[in-house]
Specification:
ETF_a/b_N; single chain; Rossmann fold; Electron transfer flavoprotein, alpha subunit; FAD; alpha/beta; transport; flavoprotein
């Protein structure tokens, strides 16, 4: 492809998209929220041109739609990768509508083959994959954070520009408040210890926390633990409507393996599960599993690690 764009309101996701995009096109332009340091990093991951976007004081970031439409009219990008964040999803949909082109959401795989763009996305709550071929361009594709590795930065020269908004738009921002910082970022954890409804007493969380600490990891959980029982905060809930993680190790106990939970942990490099039901669905997606009572297995693991 001759021209590929990436658009991201999160620098880290921009680095990931740049690493993937440089394998697809001969010219890569990045539209990124950030400063010159962010721009230099995006260039080191593969961008040829970076156009910096700032968070507007009195309107929403999506107001850059008008600017992007003008740029698309002169640049004619064939592929536009958009970070699948709250703002990115909104912007991608509007951009696709205005450009009258397809928009493929949350693609997990992306490659060029015989002049076509081949994509894959998960559908039906994680029960099936959908393969898509696009042979008309432009096409817009949204990519969730952490879908692709950002690769190694390289010494590279590129051009940096600042974009300005065109007008204020119909939405006026009255006030912005900083969101309370989360106490844990499971998406960045190398090891996650998962707890499911097989744990019958809240006091049992202590052994999961101790095991996670010994492994240098964090504790995650299934939806009932967070939303129904309120034993852990919702930021630790893993699943299709919770966090999606890609740790090196996901070790879980008392997790049955419902597809909604598996969706959030299926890209873990190694999955180890503990369940007293030898037919537990979680075993089907596990690399290793132990049939046993978590009240016995977890303390044994802690003892061995000590």
């Amino acid at each position: 492809m001759n021209k590929v764009w990436i658009i991201s309101d999160h620098p880290e996701t921009a680095y990931e998209l740049a690493g993937k995009a440089k394998t697809l096109g001969t010219s890569l332009t990045a539209y990124v929220l950030g400063d010159n340091d962010v721009a230099q990093r995006v260039i080191s991951f593969g961008a040829d041109v970076v156009k910096l976007m700032q968070l507007p004081q009195t309107t929403v970031w999506e107001q850059y739609l008008s600017v992007l439409l003008q740029e698309a009219g002169t640049e004619n990008p064939e592929l536009i990768l958009v970070a699948s964040t709250c703002r990115g999803k909104d912007l991608a949909a509007q951009l696709a509508a205005k450009l009258d082109c397809p928009c493929v959401t949350d693609s997990k795989k992306l490659e060029e083959k015989d002049g076509k763009l081949v994509l894959q996305r998960i559908i039906y709550g994680g029960l099936a994959y959908q393969d898509i071929e696009c042979n008309t361009f432009p096409v817009i594709v949204t990519i969730a954070p952490h879908t692709f590795e950002k690769g190694e930065p390289e010494e590279k020269q590129g051009e940096i520009f600042n974009l300005s908004l065109i007008g204020e738009g119909p939405i006026q921002v009255v006030e912005r408040k900083a969101k309370e910082a989360a106490s844990v970022n499971l998406a960045e954890a190398d090891i996650v210890v998962g707890v499911g409804r097989g744990l019958t007493q809240q006091s049992g969380l202590a052994m999961f926390e101790e095991l996670a600490k010994l492994l240098g990891g964090e504790v995650g959980c299934t939806r009932p633990i967070a939303e129904d029982l309120k034993w852990l905060p919702e930021e630790r809930y893993l699943g299709i409507t919770g966090k999606q993680i890609k740790p090196n190790l996901y070790l879980c106990a008392g997790v049955s393996g419902q597809i909604q939970h598996v969706y959030g942990i299926r890209e873990s490099k190694v999955i180890v599960s503990i369940n007293n039901n030898e037919n537990a669905p979680i075993f089907k997606v596990s690399d290793y599993y132990i049939v046993g009572d978590l009240e016995e297995v977890i303390p044994a693991l802690i003892s061995a690690l000590k």
